[in-house]
Amino acid sequence: MKYFFAPWRYKFIKSKKPNHCVFCHALSENNDETYHIVKRGKYSFVMLNKFPYTSGHVMVIPNRHTSDFLSLSNEETLEITNFIREFTKVLKKSFNPEGFNIGMNIGKPGGAGIEDHLHVHIVPRWNGDNNFMPVIGQTKIHPIDLDTVFEIIKENL
Prior knowledge:
By secondary structure, the protein is of the alpha+beta class. The chain has helices spanning 10-14, 22-29, 32-35, 74-95, 134-137, 146-155; strands at 2-5, 37-40, 44-48, 58-62, 99-103, 120-125, 139-142. The protein has a five-stranded antiparallel β-sheet with strand order 2-3-4-6-5, with helices on both faces. The chain has a two-stranded parallel ribbon with strand order 1-7. It is globular. The two termini are 30 Å apart. The model has no long low-confidence stretch (mean pLDDT 80).
């Protein structure tokens, strides 16, 4: 297994997690620019990931608050799928990636950072980028470099 360091992810790990659903909150605020919602549909919406793995990392999210993939209606599933196709094309045009990771992390054991509200990640990828997820790219991401880990441990002795 290869090891790469991604210290920019440390901000996400250490950030205080809100008591509310961040997706429902963003959707209800009707301030798409502030919350980086790039498109709304009848059943779902697309927004940028606040802590992206790569530039252009977006998420397709059902409007309805649910963690159960099987509870999605045919209409919700179709619109989400159409958004995935549309934004794969948009990202290809915008950033010229050589590939994509597209998928859901469902439940804590499945790697979901936000467990209570389904979301589909669309992550543009390039040959040689350093953010392959362990399961897909057989590479482990370290969210913080060794020098910083050392400093933090020393501070907390």
